[in-house]
Structure of FprA family A-type flavoprotein:
Amino acid sequence: MYCVRKITEDLYWVGGNDRRLALFENIHPIPRGVSYNSYLLLDKETVLFDTVDWSICRQFIENIKHLLGDKTLDYMVINHVEPDHAACIEEIILRYPEVKIICTPKATMFMRQFGFDIDGRIIEVKEGNKMSFGEHEVMFVGAPMVHWPEAMVTYDLTNGALFSADAFGTFGSLDGKLFNDEVNFDRDWIDDARRYYTNIVGKYGVHVQALLKKASNLDIKFICPLHGPVWRNDFGYFLGKYDKWSRYEPEEKGVMIVYGTMYGNTEAAANDLATRLVEKGMKNVVMYDVSSTDVSDLISEAFKYSHIVLASVTYNLNLYPPMLNYITDMKALNVQNRTFALVENGTWAPQSGKIMRKLLEELKNTTILENDVSLSSSMKEEEGTSMDDLANNIIESMK
Ligand code: FEO
């Protein structure tokens, strides 16, 4: 059964949802599923903007068949070649053999690398090129590294729709509600949107900033991303979040404590620090166990909070592996402009503070507070003073 949504008189959402996939890119948990968005323009000539993941191809084909009826498909605009959007290109070609593919030269190269049979149907476009399909004229705008180098976005000069590829996407499936004003985005979606952005595109803040600059010159009426809701108002809210995230500016002044604990002693020290911070007036404190919290959540929260405390046990005279993984991922995703504080623990040779400091020094624009707390096996009453000093320093550094 087809399932489509009308966006304007001649533009439709023809995507679908995958609620059975456990891990996006086989790495990031998606308990709320994910949508793969594709859009069909029924102008004098018909245009499909991107395809979908293979998992929902059958739904996708039913949607397109329903809307096209006897018409043929004239064009596919391929903004992004990652297989969660490009997997059904060949299926479309088989069903609509006359279809032409509009894309960047790099996208052509990538489609060939993936083994797609696209010979004789490619129209390559560059920054600022325009094409008309009847009533609608579109302009192609480069968006390299948002999130792959071949990516572009397409702006419809007639209806103001921006087909934004991965930009402005989010994890989460659409429960019949397509538009941002049909959901409570700030309550129900923002955490998944942040987790999507930071883990998928977070590394490429400079490129996102470049795209935001280009977008500021467009009169946007709709943002049509490849995942998640379509935006048709309140653009400032989401553009503002993207601006902040891509400049690596924290959303909130607050303290995120991430602890790596084997038997609960380092966790107890982290609880002590959290309590001191709250008693001193800093109530925006969150705590996460590095072993049981997915690293994609820890990355997302690192983009949210201004201060990060890492409290870790020493392990085999080295850093506790889940903590090492977290710091490595922060570096890979370009986390920067944050203030860190450290608590180490160890029974015969505490090393974790020194190792964490060295690793964090590789992050850009990072402040690491000086007075690390070093514990031997467990926190004692007399170590309250050094923990108190650390809490005071954290609060002082927020001023
Ligand atoms: Fe949703 Fe970069 O693919």
